[in-house]
Amino acid sequence: MNGQLVEKQLAFHITTNCTLNCALCATLTPDYKKHHIARHTPFKQIVQEIKGVFEIYDFIEDITFSGGEPMLHPDLEKIVDECMKYSEQFANLRIFTNGTILPSDLLLSQMKQYRGKLSIVIDHYGPDLSVKAEQIVQTLENEGLICRVNRYYGQDQYYGGWVNYGSPSEYRGYTQQQLEEVYQHCHLAQYRCPGVFNGKLTNCSWALFGTDRGYMPLPEDEKQLINLLDSSIPLDEKKAIAMEFGKHPLWACQYCNGFDPEHSERFPAGEQL
Fold this sequence. Notes:
The protein has helices at 29-34, 43-56, 76-84, 105-113, 133-142, 176-184, 187-191, 205-212, 235-243; strands spanning 6-13, 59-66, 90-97, 118-124, 147-151, 195-197, 200-202, 226-227. By secondary structure, it is α/β, with parallel strands linked by helices.
């Protein structure tokens, strides 16, 4: 794939609705709930987002549908079928769920149809929160399907638990040197995790949601955000921006504690507000 734009992973955040209300949520779901503005991204817009992504990238190893809780989206199965139109441009499509909603019969049928390409990942927050997790696993096993379970409760939580990005509205005032140090030690600089939400693509979900909520003002000269819905922007320009992901701090870094995979303090995941 020399000369092509290839990415290891990319997440489509298709909803800010969720069945849980977790502290330290990286997509600010409790904030959307608190202000009564949680919403599903409309299907027609998601079609544009998917098309826009696969115009930019030649191949992506792992596509994920996330939220919020993607199982709540009324058009989830239609979104799966839409993404599968580009199946030659990605290796895996994973739906991340918190284990509170059973997959529909149609989704189970799709998992059989796209066996080896489509799967479910359960972020398991314990039997008191992820109340359907074990039932989902059993249902999939009965259908000859498998899923991955990330254990986020008790001792030895997945990746040690969550990190605390801090308040998205607090400007940190890092010097340029501090900003570079925070970013170069960040998970996003080392591994890159591009995400899409509300028509925008960038290398940080914290940036997507914090900016959407108005907590992180976007500088006029910022060049690390791609508007997938703006057809007036040349494709070459969008690709050039995507190629720079992971190389430089984002505007949102001034509103974040950073995520150092080795040194950031870990906290129990899924604690409810």
